[in-house]
Amino acid sequence: MVRLTLFVVMVSTLLLSSYAWFPRVKEPPYQLVKTWGGKGDAPGRLNEPTGIAVSTSEVFVSDARNARIQVFDFGGNFKHMFGEPGDEAGQLGRPMNLTVANGELYVTDYFNDRIQVYTLQGQFLRAIGKPGAGPGEFNAPGGVAVANNGDLFVADFYNQRVQQLDANGDFIRQWGTPGETGVWAGEFNYPTDVAVAANGTFYIADGYNDRVQVFSSNGDFSHKWGGPLAMNIFGSFNGWFATVTSISVGPQGNIFVADFYNDRVQKFKPDGEFLNTFGIPSKGPAHTAIAAAVTSDDTVFVADYANHQIQKWRPGKK
Fold it and tell me: Is this model's pTM higher than 0.70 or not?
């Protein structure tokens, strides 16, 4: 009888672990509506797009190797572009993840170790940060989020930290320690992006730890997810990651995560419950889904790095 009880407990534990670590899709499949782009340097052509953001009517794309930002309407029609190679004000090294906030576009300028801010029409406004590991300095920023009060949360990639700055770029606090990686809560392994929800909760794409870390509006660690125990165990199962490169919050508060080496975007509830996955598999050594942005009607635009294009997805009908 004791052996039977132990067996039942073991089987129950395995089943519960299986449900938690190998969740099923809970929504109808997303549908690919359109792609546009293709490799090149002409207007509308892209060379390794690395970031994407949306306003109420436009899609902004980091055209990384062309060192510029391109702007399209929601139908994929080219509208205008701005930026050129260089390190002067308004010029770009390698633009990465983007954020639209308060009528402005925030661009992480990875090679130039700064955040640059433009109007949505492309006029340069200001730059924030400089190279270094001190407060308010960056070593290859990968992503930026803007809170309701104007504070910035910056994924400081090589410095292994996320910094919070005020709207003027003055340092407030940080999570993580420059030069140190780790798998415990509040430690990072090359963070790539940050997203802030309406309630101030912020979500960090902990890139090479293959997970998402979540902090409350007061800066306290809340929870994490991605593979067993969310401790740098990568994989291709639902809810697991193989290098997280972008994160965004949808209009219903759901979290969309670019799972780069798995060529997909995964969708979660704010607590980390897996909901859905979609993407285009890569056909070579380069990978596809490097960044995603979500509109007010749940349309998802994906920067497709390998194919030098943009993907447009719509939720499936229930």
Answer: yes
